[in-house]
Amino acid sequence: MKFPEDLKYTPDHEWVKVDGNTATVGITDFAQSELGDIVFVEIETEGEELDKEEVFGSVEAVKTVSDLFMPVSGEVLELNPKVEENPEIVNEDPYGDGWLIKIKMSDSSELDDLMDASAYQETVE
Amino acid sequence: MKSIQLESIHQDLGAKMTPFAGFNMPLQYEGLNVEHKHVRAKVGVFDVSHMGQIFVQGPKAVEFLQKVTSNDVSKLYPGKVQYSCLPNEQGGIVDDLLVYCLAEEQFLLVVNASNIEKDFNWLRGYEMEGALLLNESDDWSLLAVQGPMASEAMQELTEVPLGEMKYYTFEQARFAGVDNVIISATGYTGAGGFELYVRNKDAAHVWHEVMRAGAKADIKPIGLAARDTLRLEMGFCLYGNDIDDKTSPIEAGLGWITKFSKDFINSEALKAQKENGPSQRLIGFVMEDRGIPRKDYRIKDAGGEEIGRVTSGTQSPSLGKAIGLGYVQSDYKAPDTEIFIEIRNKALKAKVSKPPFYKG
């Protein structure tokens, strides 16, 4: 199980990569492993301003469905088009090609509430 | 939580384990889709040792089983298996099961793990002198070797000509050097193959031999998650989802194992229900819109009226489409009827379709 050091993590098993004012969001290796084979990712919030912890979409796996929550407040700038066509890349490469959305953050101080890799790792072990 | 005999073997194979029916069971090893497709294409082995084994023996065994099961036990002969159910007095089903005729006066009932205690107590309530009941569920392991290559992969382990065995027959024979293994041409996948009933003490040996002999056919261990998607592609009922204490065998489309040529528990009421037509029916459906149906989701008509509930649903790995089972008002049971599944507040289109969904 991988926990890249350069990412921030949420209790909902999402990761955030910060680049200036933009946050890239995906689900963690642990999350994809718990969900199992992902069948599709549904995100219909592109362009919307959402608050932290609001639902921005859902991940549907063969066995179960799970909501996706905003790790920080902001505007959903774009979705990963590859995930729509090949949702299995979320299983294969959750921290890379399987990213889900990019957010234009409205309050970057919210990042302070997120966990670092070792803190997150402790929550799932 | 109970342990199956081979728990540590599954853990060593890297299985993700899950509590199921009070047992710690292998849910998946490599991944659901890979395992599912492997069973359809080649061969896989499932440890389903959580299943229950209840023996019935004595001169009244047939009479007893005719009373408590819905199917006609008089059709059985040594070496023949029958799918059946235990009706309750209120129109529902205590459990569904396999009935093995071991000898004229000796039968084996294979029941769902979640219902072992309930079934045994239920059966004891109808116990007759001359029909002895023995619950040996804790003594047996059950390995299901399933897939189109099962016969050729397993043949070196037994002298029984596996490829010639008819569906729903069995042999008690030497297998992998172990005597009196029940080799049963049954399964819950629709992929063909065998179920092997072995004593717990022999389970590890038989498992390793199955894996060794199966290696030439690329055998893989398969978890319960794929067992569920495989059975659902065939439209096989799962107790606790598609049938339960409240659903009748007639409603569930199990009329074919409900024989009114004999008297059994609640047979009068079930016969009347069959003649009058049940008000609800278990149907299969295939999603047309994108969404996966899940247990308890609402089924609606085009006008938004609720007409039933989903009892099982999944993404079918073989078809690449979402499929499900559910009860609907009988007016909606015809194939190709348009229905809607309410998935997270959206009414998504589906079509009634007669299982099996996967036709091989």
Question: Could you walk me through the main structural features you see in this protein, from its secondary elements to its overall organization?
Answer:
The complex is a heterodimer of chains A (125) and B (360). Chain A has 125 residues and is of the alpha+beta class. Chain A contains 4 helices and 9 strands. Chain A has one domain (8-108): RNA polymerase II/Efflux pump adaptor protein, barrel-sandwich hybrid domain (OB fold (Dihydrolipoamide Acetyltransferase, E2P)). Chain B is an alpha+beta fold. Among the domains of chain B are: 2-48 and 138-233, Gyrase A, domain 2 (2-Layer Sandwich), CATH 3.30.1360.120; 280-360, Aminomethyltransferase beta-barrel domains (Elongation Factor Tu (Ef-tu), domain 3, Beta Barrel), CATH 2.40.30.110. Chain B has 8 helices and 20 strands. Chain B has helices spanning 7-12, 32-41, 61-68, 116-124, 150-154, 200-214, 224-234, 267-276; strands spanning 2-3, 16-20, 23-28, 44-47, 52-57, 81-87, 93-103, 106-111, 132-135, 140-146, 170-175, 178-184, 193-199, 220-221, 280-287, 298-300, 306-316, 321-329, 338-343, 346-352. The longest helix of chain B has 15 residues, at 200-214. Classes of the chains: A alpha+beta (125), B alpha+beta (360). The A-B interface holds A 33, 36-37, 39-40, 42, 58, 60, 62-65, 91 and B 16, 28, 31-33, 225, 228-229, 290-292, 294, 314-315, 317, 322, 344.
